[in-house]
Amino acid sequence: MLHEYGTENLKSVTFKKNILMQPAFLALVKNSFRFNLFLLIKLPAAFFSGVRVDSLSAEQCVVTVPYKWFSTNPFKSTYFACLAMAAEMSTGILALGNTYERTPAVSMLVTALEGNFFKKATGITTFTCKDGAAITQKINEVIATGAAGVITTLATGVNNRNEPVANFSITWSFKSKA
Predict the structure, then answer these.
(1) CB of 101 within 8 A of CB of 154?
(2) Is the dihedral of CA 77, 73, 54, 133 positive or negative?
(3) Can you give the residue ranges of every domain in the chain?
(4) Helix axes 80-99, 23-30, angle to 10 degrees
(5) Which of 22, 33, 54, 176 has the fewest CB atoms in 10 Å of its CB?
(6) Class of domain 23-176
(7) For residue 24, which of 128, 103, 113 has the smallest C-alpha distance?
(8) CA 61 to chain centre
(9) Residues whose CB is less than 8 angstroms from the CB of residue 144 and which lie 6 or more positions away in sequence, other chains included
(10) pTM of the predicted protein model
(11) Phi/psi at 16 (nearest 5 deg)?
(12) Positions of the chain with pLDDT under 70
């Protein structure tokens, strides 16, 4: 395991020629105090559930959620809403990294979510979204055309044995405020 539910040990922050990830946003995510404060203020349910960014690059984001008292359900597994929060964060961080302090500003909103569950989540569940390049392309297209754009992203969750626990398809809508 890479961390004890913090962002101090982010594995990678990479930039590629055609991928835009705002440096100020990356600095926020890498600073565990500032990012945890952001979670506490803006996403308190995620903060108290233990949802944390494990690694971030321009192409992918990895987010974990533990099985603990605050995230449990009566069936002795992680509550599905906590799994959905972690999945959504793995896709949303990639979008935020491309919209953070951007001119013109771009609004973003989840418009659909579909989840599939394969195994009880009884430990740490790790969600990975590898759609960073597609998200960047969609946001750049929205800014260039001025038309709203929609993209469906995939977040795949596995347990510590790399067995599939759940996957979520999350549809994001973007609109330029220009």
Answers:
(1) no
(2) positive
(3) 23-176
(4) 140
(5) 33
(6) alpha beta
(7) 103
(8) 6
(9) none
(10) 0.85
(11) -125, 160
(12) 1-20
